[in-house]
Amino acid sequence: PQDGLQWVQRRERGEALVEFVTRRPIDEDTGFYIAGHAQSIKALKRTLKGLKVPPQRIMTEVYWSTGNVGL
Fold it and tell me: Which of 10, 15, 22 lies closest to 41, judged by CA?
């Protein structure tokens, strides 16, 4: 897109973010800080692992999880 924005359709939790990340080149210096919904984070971490991103370059913070109270 010319303006740097990309519109995505709402889908299951995490799917749009996974698609966005897999469409971008990831160089060896790229780090990831992922915060938010637990199941979305899990999906994205699984994808990054499949893309051979070392775990030390992935930091996460869960703020909520479907079906859980008091994280």
Answer: 15
**Residue 27 in contact with residue 57, Cβ under 8 Å?**
no
DSSP string, 7-45: -----STTHHHHHHHHTS---TT--EEEEEEHHHHHHHH
One-letter amino acid for residue 16 of the chain: A
The whole-model pTM stands at: 0.75
Specify burial of residue 60 (Cβ count, 10 A radius: 0-12, 13-18, 19+).
Answer: middle
Question: CA 16 to CA 3: how far, in whole Å?
Answer: 19
pLDDT tens, 29-63?
999 999 989 999 999 999 999 999 999 999 999 98
